[in-house]
Amino acid sequence: MVPLVHQMVDLLHHMINMLHQMVNILHQMGEVALPGGKVEEDDADDIETALREAEEEIGLDRSLVDVVTVLESLPARNRITVIPVVGILWDRNAFNPVINTAEVEAIFDAPLEMFLKDENRREKEIKYMGDEYLIHFFDHETENGKYMIWALTAGILIKTASIVYQRPPDFQVRMPRFWNRSRQ
């Protein structure tokens, strides 16, 4: 779930609630991730899964979120498919985070536009199964800590920011070809 926060003064000054997960589905300790997880039997669709997971992980009340789009699915490691669901949180003050400490270490905000700027960013070229692509790393500091947002999470946020701001990033984006495969 990519929850965007609407600022009354400036609609384009979106903020993203992100998670710094201690344990996630991929067992990557200490990585920054967006709320999300596996589909459960009672989930009607991908939107329901995203809303349920955001509620379970960070206490985001689904009634506060207007889902605006579902992005193209992305295959991740270990044969997992990630389906980014983007929603707007119209009233940031109504959201009172309740962190599930079994899954989440901290929650923080990051300006969405930072994922279009070539500041506090670096990249690494990866070669995998005959494909060459760039992994992006964004450094973000808050009053409570320093975070590195990278790989699939960074890719989702670059795509979301490009859609919201209707412009490409200030840097080259070469996503893995396998991210362009449709979910089966």
In a few lines, what is going on in this structure?
By secondary structure, this protein is α+β, with helices and mostly antiparallel strands. Helix content is 15%, strand content 34%. The chain has one domain: Alpha-Beta Complex (Nucleoside Triphosphate Pyrophosphohydrolase), CATH 3.90.79.
The gyration radius over C-alpha positions equals 16 Å
Major sheet description: 6 strands, mixed
Calculate the mean pLDDT score and round it: 80
For the record, the CATH architecture stands as Alpha-Beta Complex
Order of helices and strands: EEEHEEEEEEEEH
CATH class equals: Alpha Beta
The CATH superfamily is known as Nucleoside Triphosphate Pyrophosphohydrolase
Fraction of residues in β-strands: 25-35%
What name is given to the CATH topology?
A: Nucleoside Triphosphate Pyrophosphohydrolase
Let me know the number of strands.
11
How helix-rich are the residues, as a percent range?
A: 10-25%
The best one-word shape is globular
Low-confidence stretches: 6-29
Q: Strand pairing plus helix content: what structural class?
A: alpha+beta
What is the end-to-end distance?
A: 21 Å
- Number of structurally distinct domains: 1
Organism: Capsicum annuum (Capsicum pepper)
Pfam families: NUDIX
GO cellular component, one term: cytoplasm
Domain Nudix hydrolase: 1-133
